[in-house]
């Protein structure tokens, strides 16, 4: 499958079957995160793998969007480890973590798994539930698993702006 086909086929999976995800697939997803580009290769991402059903159940205290997935990745960043742009001090941690999360989603799709990027969560509650070290900020929760046979793709999935709306050459 070409990259563009992979990217087009990936969708936010909101219903999973009960199968566990094999360790080999988890390892591939984590490897895709490890090799993702980050500003000045600072690699401020830290990833928590949650396959304990009781902890996934506890996550429901900070978000309703776990979709009962058998596996969740929590992508965290350490802003102190990230690059700060010299011109204005902009910290790259959120951008770096977003690149990492995107790599993970695409590797999961290539492995026959579904994911949903969840940003709608209470980060303070997530830090408490997951007992995250103080220097880590949770950026995304990535429920992951095999899509249920009756999973429905959101009608918004196919809705995109046109290339002409998105792109300017030399000026907007």
List keywords for this structure.
alpha+beta; single chain; 4-stranded antiparallel β-sheet; 14% strand; 172 residues
Computed structural class: alpha+beta
- What separation lies between the terminal Cα atoms? 34 Å
Kindly estimate the percentage of residues that lie in beta strands according to DSSP: 5-15%
Level of helix content? 25-40%
Q: What is the number of helices?
A: 6
Outline the low-pLDDT stretches.
none
Rg, nearest Å: 17 Å
The counted number of beta strands is 4
Query: How would you spell out the order of helices and strands?
Result: HHEHEHEHEH
Round the mean pLDDT to the nearest integer and report it: 97
Report strand order across the widest sheet: 1-2-4-3
Shape: globular
Characterize the biggest β-sheet: 4 strands, antiparallel
